[in-house]
Design a protein that fits this description.
single chain, 83 residues, alpha+beta, 3 helices, 4 strands
């Protein structure tokens, strides 16, 4: 099962899914989400995508099955590609 890092923005700003990298375990995903050098890379990618920082509510790791459901429920607000 693959795991993905999902950034949930404050209300009205949607969310962002990092499809690359993906992770083989929840622990790998959690480590990356909390590792300062990786956080800088993720933040830079979102600034490139949106042009400015957005207010982050939460960062979560989702497995592929739950991510598919999440994307179906929130498809109009998502950036990135669908699975």
């Amino acid at each position: 099962m693959k795991w993905f890092l999902v950034v949930l923005f404050m209300e009205g700003f949607g969310s962002y899914v990092f499809f690359d990298p993906s992770f083989d375990t929840l622990d790998e995903c959690r480590f990356s989400a909390n590792y300062p050098p990786h956080i800088q890379v993720y933040a830079q990618k979102m600034i490139e995508e949106y042009g400015a920082p957005r207010p982050v509510s939460r960062v979560v790791c989702m497995d592929e099955q739950n991510l598919k459901l999440f994307l179906l429920e929130n498809s109009e607000e998502e950036k990135g590609i669908s699975l």
